[in-house]
Specification:
With 262 residues, this protein is α/β, with parallel strands linked by helices. It has one domain: Aldolase class I (TIM Barrel). The chain has 11 helices and 8 strands. It has an 8-stranded parallel beta barrel, surrounded by 4 helices. Helix 6 links the parallel strand 5 and strand 6. Helix 10 runs antiparallel to helix 11. The radius of gyration is 17 Å and the shape is globular. The model has no long low-confidence stretch (mean pLDDT 97).
């Protein structure tokens, strides 16, 4: 079965907007504007993102009409930040339901290094099998956790996570960036034919965010899954346009600053 990733890519690059933080982090990331999922969907549509990443409940209630022009990634598992439990995030949406909601891909968080790793791998394996039977891609959020993970952003641990994603059958892996572009090239190499999407992380100043994006691009990643750096910004539509120019047209940051400084 051929896995169809074409909807998620443009010029061999991908720019996704993530909005699964409400479940994972709670309301602390939101303000009165971006707490409304419709605001996020407007950004996704007008910013011409390659995909919007939602939990199933948001997809069911907000992924309608014009918004369906934006490809949909449905997260299949999730947890809250309330209980401090052994890292595991169990499946809460089936592949079948995600497809009925209009998903063009599904996502799943893996806590490699967790004591629950065998259960996580087993569940993820079933997700890959089911999704690939339908020909839709699987994105693995790779988050190393557990007492033996002393630092989750060393080059070695990120490269290991990338390799795990490849060997478990993920079509994309979402990883953090460690600020080491040369080391990150080794991370990309370990992913093989699995594409790397770099996480946006915590909010940066727009110019710093764009400069970091350009730096990461030169490591060979396939793209980005960005949330807070877009929808927490006071000018998200302008920043999205600047970001597109950097990612898809290889523009220098100085060439796109007019979008965010006007």
């Amino acid at each position: 079965m051929r896995i169809n990733t074409s909807k998620l890519m443009k010029n061999h690059k991908s720019l996704m907007i993530a909005y699964d933080q409400g479940l994972e982090h709670g309301p602390k990331d939101f303000n009165i504007k971006n707490v409304d999922p419709k605001y996020l969907m407007d950004i996704a549509l007008e910013g011409r993102f390659n995909a919007v990443i939602l939990q199933s409940g948001l997809a069911e209630k907000y992924y309608h009409e014009a918004y369906q022009q934006v490809p949909l990634v449905v997260k299949l598992n999730g947890k809250t930040s309330i209980p401090h439990i052994v890292p595991i995030s169990r499946q809460i949406c089936s592949v079948d339901r995600a497809i009925k909601l209009g998903a063009d891909a599904v996502g799943y968080t893996i806590y490699d290094g967790s004591p629950k790793e065998p259960e996580i791998f087993s569940e993820f394996g079933k997700v890959v099998e089911q999704a690939h039977d339908y020909g839709i891609p699987v994105i693995a959020w790779m988050y190393p956790r557990g007492e033996f993970v002393k630092d989750d952003v060393t080059t070695d641990i990120l490269a290991y996570s990338a390799r795990i994603g490849l060997e478990l059958g993920a079509d994309f892996v979402k990883l953090k960036y460690n600020g080491d572009p040369e080391g990150y090239k080794w991370v990309v190499a370990n992913a093989g034919r699995t594409r790397i999407l770099t996480a946006g992380g915590s909010k940066l100043a727009p110019k710093d965010f764009l400069e970091r994006t350009r730096e990461i691009l030169h490591t060979g990643v396939a793209g980005f899954a960005i949330g807070r750096n877009i929808w927490q910004d006071p000018k998200p539509f302008s920043l999205a346009q600047a970001l597109r120019e950097v990612v898809f047209k290889n523009k220098k940051v100085e060439e796109v600053l007019h979008y965010i400084e006007n």
